[in-house]
Amino acid sequence: MAITKVLGRNMDSIVVERETTVQSCLRYMKEHRYEPETFLPLDYIKVTPINEQLRELQEPKNVKLILDVIKYDKQYYKALLYACGNALVCDNDDDARKLAYESGNQKNKVVSLNGTLFSKSGIISGGSSELKARAKRWDEKHLDTLRLRKDKLFDEYKEQQKKKRREAELINARAQLQQLESRLRYSKTDKETAEKKLRILMEKDLVDLQTKLIQYEPRINALQASIDEREKLISKLRIEKNKIEDAVFTEFCKQIRVANIRVYEDRELQAAEKRAQERLEFENQKTKIQTMLEFERSRDTAGHVEQIKQEVSTLEDALQKCQKNEKKYRKIIEDLQHEIADIKDRLLDHKKKIEFQEREIAECTKRATQLNKDYNEQRKRLQLIESDIEKLRLERHNYYRTAKLNEISLPFRGNAGSMAAISLAETSSSDDTSVVSSQTQNNSTTTISMTQSSTTTTDSSTISNGDGILTSQQDTKQIYDLEDRFELNFKRLRDDLKKINYEQIDKEEKLLIKQLSDIEIQLQKHLPQTSTIDARSREVKTTFELTNAEFERARNAAKRARQAFEKVKKERYDRFNALYEHVSLCIDDIYKSLTNSQAAVACLTAEDAEEPYRGGITYNCVAPGKRFQAMENLSGGEKTVAAICLLFALRSFKPAPFFLLDEVDAALDNTNIGKVADFIREQSASEFQCIVISLKEQFYSRADALVGIYPEPGDCITSHCLTLDLNQFDERENIANTRS
Question: Which of the listed residues 69, 253, 341, 381 has the most CB atoms within 10 Å of its CB?
């Protein structure tokens, strides 16, 4: 909520590189009527440098710059500095108010963890339900949703690019079709004009023919009367002929089962007559058309009509061809669209499965991280409890030792302890002994061990006892174990003393100490002052001073050892963390560049977040187009690419002038060989010089220069080398056929 409050209206701002990009975006949004947005061009915005003194604030505790608690890429530093400025974040409202308005002449912009903002101008704005709703956008689920939306939009963008390439071909085909349709319209217009002229001429000829027909009508009527008389005669003769035919063909008619021969003749001859009639009609039509054509030729219009017909025919053929091509292309496009739809469906199914599995993996990882965190907290609590126990055991031993030195008899229960068994040796607590041990953990094949085993360093501080004998840590443990078996008998205590609390115990202890001191003073007054007692007292005092001085020296030595250890530990953590942070940030980009795919993912995860060098570093890779799986389940080529990616990431931390690779392409296929070779060529052009030992043509054919080693047989086999500069060749594809 604190980050959301400080960012304010810049929470949804869009960061771009140049101001020209902002202008293009605004123009596009205006054309498509999108909602207004805020843009932050990195080359235009002006920012105030960070006040480094704010990073050194000690009071109140846990004060940090907002910019320091946000994880971001370095390229967006200027935008975040513009949005956050020198704003500070505190644990609570009281600390934030003091830091904002009660820190001298300087006023600061401070926000508390609950979202209350104290501005320099004195305005205080608190959190609200709207702020809480906006702050939820930082949740992991929302980030996952945004990532899924990003992937979906990227897929849609690729589909749109494919459609644009198809649309260019379709636009060309449509342009050709429109051109042909335009030519066809002009040809049809010419054809209609020619037909109109031809129809006028034919109508004029028809009128002439009708005039001639009227002139021939009297002759036609006379001929028709003559024909009618002859038909009557023919009919009479036909009847007689039929009678004769019936008599002659009676048997034949019975065989073919017809009434008479005329039925047979009518049936057979009818078809022949029909064919003859049709033939005659065709001949008449042919003659008519030939006559018209001759007439038109005489008028010198046949050539023009023929030319128009040829053009119309040519255009119709071209139109039909274009229509066929259009149908063909449309069918191809429809098939491709169906295939694309099927592929999209399958891709969505696979993506849903992958997303479900990734969510499960993320939940498992989250649970494992939480369990590991709980385990570390419980372990710290256990160490604190053990430390408290050691302090209490030390206090108990000091009480026993003091009682014995003062010849105070303690009431033990039965055989559970005696005054003679109490040791007079002084012991040190665990806080005064520097003991550090770290264990080296072995990881499975899915992790790359980056741990460092640290040896147990023990400052063997020895402490003198009352008899001048030094006790080690092992002796101290034995003394504590022996005293653990002691049981005091508290029956002699009054009931009211058994029920008192620790505060009352402290009071009673001080009172008893004071009474004891008074009694000792009284004893000193009444005891005889002999020289023996004085000598013994001086001896005991000298021994005590020597023992105390030795104890102080041992304590100081232990503290110095601890300080040295903490310094080495911090330096070790800083160096390791610098390497780990650098590799974690750059390994994903290197893996994407190496595989030439934005869908590839590579990440490092520390098993122990507080002391990463004590545990393992888990390295996981997701190859392009594949689901997440353990490293041991990847193919040989994928493992090789992942290992090369890790090598390049480690090299980028402290670059060396040369990089030597020995047959890294042995397990790679041709596709991965090309990707690795292209990546090495790109990096060697600007980052480093690379020497690769390879036996595959697909790999070494992409190098800048070749060095070949070959043996020369003889009495003593000697090796020789050949060199070849590949930069002199223009076409890289021909290098594989070149022999040194």
Answer: 253
| HEC per residue, 539-599 | HHHHHHHHHHHHHHHHHHHHHHHHHHHHHHHHHHHHHHHHHHHHHHHHHHHHHHHHHCCCC
pTM of the model: 0.31
Question: DSSP letter at 176?
Answer: H
Cross-strand pairs, 118: 110, 124
Rounded Cα–Cα distance for residues 77 and 74 (Å): 5
Report whether 335 contacts 186 (CB < 8 A).
Answer: no
Token code pair at residue 292:
């018209």
Give the Cα-Cα-Cα angle 605, 609, 614 (nearest 5 degrees).
95
Helices (H) and strands (E) in the chain, counts: 17, 18
Which residues are within 8 A (CB) of 650 and not within 5 positions of it... i.e. 6 or more apart? 579, 583
Q: What's the mean pLDDT in 194-221?
A: 82
The angle formed by the CA atoms of residues 244, 250 and 253, to the nearest 5 degrees, is: 120
Count CA within 13 A, CB hemisphere, residue 235: 6
Residue 344 CA to residue 338 CA, distance in Å, equals: 10
Those residues with Cβ within 8 angstroms of residue 120's Cβ, 6 or more apart along the chain or in another chain = 100, 107, 108, 109
Pairing of strands 124-125, 117-118: antiparallel
615, with CB counted inside 10 A (0-12, 13-18, 19+), is: buried
Tokens of 100: 């904002």
What tokens does 52 get?
């480094």
One-letter amino acid for residue 581 of the chain: E
CB contact burial 439-452 (16+ within 10 A = b; e otherwise): eeeebeeebeebbe
- Structural domains of the chain in order of their starting residue, each with its CATH number: 2-138 (3.30.70.1620), 151-327 (no CATH), 432-464+509-654 (3.40.50), 656-740 (3.40.50.300)
Determine the pLDDT at residue 462: 38
For 285, what's the count of Cα atoms within 13 Å in the CB-facing half-sphere? 6
pLDDT tens string 74-92: 888 888 888 888 888 888 8
pLDDT in tens, 213-242: 787 778 788 888 888 888 888 888 888 877
User: What CA–CA distances, in Å, run from 703 to 497, 720, 732?
Assistant: 91, 20, 9
